[in-house]
Amino acid sequence: MPKLTDILTKFPFADGRKYPRLIRKEEYSNALYPPDNAFTSDNTFTIVSTDTFMLGIYELGPGGAFDPLDIHPGDEFYYILQGPIVQRSGNGQFAYLETGDGLFMPQEAWHKAHNFSDQKVRVLYFITPKAWGEDIPPAYIPTDAETKFYKGPNNDKLPDMRSVIRNITRQGCTDDIGSWPVDGKEARDYPQAVYTVRDCDKLNNIHGTRHPMLMRFIGSNDYGHFGEFILPPGGYGPRCSEEDCHEGDAAIFCIDGPITINLTQLQESFQLRPEDSFFLPAGTPYQLVNFENKPVKAVFAVTAL
């Protein structure tokens, strides 16, 4: 299995030529990060790493944490596949995330994760537009003592976040697409706050009118869009979503399936089993098809709608 640094921006497309592709769970690239100490590493599975985004899964064992703190030059979004997990930010926020919850972390927000449970935790992450800078890990990484926490020695030297963190509990609307849970540009200003997006906080909308499909945004801003598709079962015959096409690259990750991806112009279709993924280059028309007698669910990661 290649090193994580060897596949950045070129997985699963080693030659850089992107095309519609089914990526089976068994094909994900596995590595420890950080690679130099298994005791403080997470188990990382890279699904997609291109010039526009990175999609993957990381796991932490019971009682585990990844160390040191991490940072990215792009925004990062989470979907908790198996919780609970505690996500810690350098500014003193501690997000307790359960299965199905989401998280938004703006670029350059220091963070770290803890597993205080007796079960393995698993997180689906989406980082866009760029996951890593020139140095991996960064040349400077703050120690735990330099972050903010209960009775931390440097708490007085760090910003008071109470006036920074926005209230996101209001009912969202269609006009919020592109700025959910907060405006991306404003969120990236120092000091950066992170935002838990619980199931009740997801931005709900409908894709299509003749054959509606539920969309539930965890995050939506000028860098990317991340959330859930829920496609109901059909009546006589399968249920199909209406055709869609995105300005930017995208990926679909199957949560509850199987789900069929139908490439309408290419007249090709692919069935995704749970935790399989599909990469869609910018400008690829597609629809989702549900042949089951129950709703199916997928996570979407799109760089530009």
From TrEMBL:
Residues 57-125, 228-300 form the Cupin type-2 domain. CDD domains: cupin_RmlC-like, cupin_XRE_C. It comes from the Bacteria. It comes from Lientehia hominis. Transmembrane segments: none annotated. Gene3D superfamilies: Jelly Rolls. This is Cupin domain-containing protein. Pfam families: Cupin_2.
